[in-house]
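## Example pair
The file below holds two records. Each record gives the amino-acid sequence first, followed by its structure token line.
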Amino acid sequence: MIAIREFNGWNKNIYMTNGVIELYITLEVGPRIIGFSFVDGENIFKEFSEQQGKSNEGEFMLRGGHRLWTAPEAKPRTYYPDNDPVMWKELSEYSVLIMPIAEEENGIQKSMEVTISESGDAVTVTHYISNISQWAIELAPWAITVMRENGRAIIPLPEKRPHTDVLVPEYPLVAWPYTNLNDKRYGFGEKYITFAQDTAMPPTKIGLGLSKGFAAYQYKNDVFVKYFDYYEGEGYPDMGCNFETFSNEEFLEVESLGPLSLIEPGEVIAHVETWRMLRVDKELKNDEDIDKFLLPLI
């Protein structure tokens, strides 16, 4: 089902539901997917209340929810304001295409195709970036989901193997200059990294090359799972990261990245994520609990 409804002060929002899950995409700024939950459940995305229902600001606004950026991160290119109304097209009973105004200064046109499953708990978000300039542009699509406070990210690690079998590194683990690896928010297990949002702690960020291609975020008993591909041998931004997570006092981001691509004029690249909403009646703090209560559902 697709309808136009009010949400958080914006009058024009696409509402999509299959009776199990529901999401909201605002048409007044963006493209931004601003709400995702079980039907009549709590929005698992962050909502900046002072920025909800507003538009036409002169600078980039966080707002919360899900957005499409380009990597590597650089100002002002990455922080192009997405504060204007977007165009949209209904592709089917369960699918829409969202397109903002072109970023003429950056030479790109972004768009998102959002498809909710006819039943069950899944959403597919395909992110497109077109080169509308007269020259080739190198960038990577960067899909950023801003999660509400007081939850925990779950990041799977590759399976351990004997050092006699593998003599070269298997994946990058990247830290930013403001990151402390002894930060109490991080839990480094044998199979998973957990990363708790803490409303009393300052910014921190890590990135990884995740061959398993998923990450999750638990808030209360709801678990948001994001699936994405990893292309072996491709060049990724930020020392080889296809996954990054950032947190500060207000929120935590679950981010996936596509490979760095040299996009020729007129060419389009795509980056696909699949989302799921799961219910787990257990706080997932360690490897044992994640394996027992979450992994069978994934």
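Second record, same layout:
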Amino acid sequence: MQVFYAPDIKGDTYILDEKESRHVVRVMRMPKGSPVRLIDGSGNLYKGIISEPDQKRCVITLTGITEGFEERNYRLHLAVSPLKNTERFGWLIEKIVEIGVDEITPVISNHTEKTGIREERLNNIIISAMKQSLKARKPLLNPPVSFDEYISSATSSVKLIAHCNETVERVRITEACPPKSDTVIMIGPEGDFSEKEVKDAISEGFVSIHLGKGRLRTETAGIAACFSVYLINQ
């Protein structure tokens, strides 16, 4: 069933923009009466049917709503270094949205090679992933911040920093992340966090963790961290 993102939805009908309308009528060839679903980014899932299949302004009549659709019993914030390869960073964002994440903050650390992000592109990836995986709540994408600024302002009840520095004591993520927790996990750049950064984070209340015996690339580590939290809460 086709899924649409409708952040401004209200009333009993919703009119798709011209691009979506053309896709529905000319490409998908969906006739009048076809069932569809809409997500508003605030946690609500709507059911509807196409009542006017116009290729410029396709009208959907709403038939039902599920408030708080598939709300999770935990909150996850991933603070991750941007990658030099924007395609890989976009792929990371896509996958963690599919798994389940509430907030994403790009963090600029000592070894970060690319300090900026393409916010519009990443938000489009987030919306596409939401539609693909039927997530009704849109994760918040924050602007990039420095490492020091982030660790001093993080307020989650569980604060974790994942790294590969074996000179600093680490515990498994499953030991440091209890179920139903408000959790933030920091993931470093290709060159990892520096030892000083790890120690500074620990001094700010972060717990030093690892994601297993192997050394993972940033995008793989981010996905592994989110999926570990997902499994902990099942």
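Notes on the second record: The mean pLDDT is 95. The longest strand covers residues 45-52.
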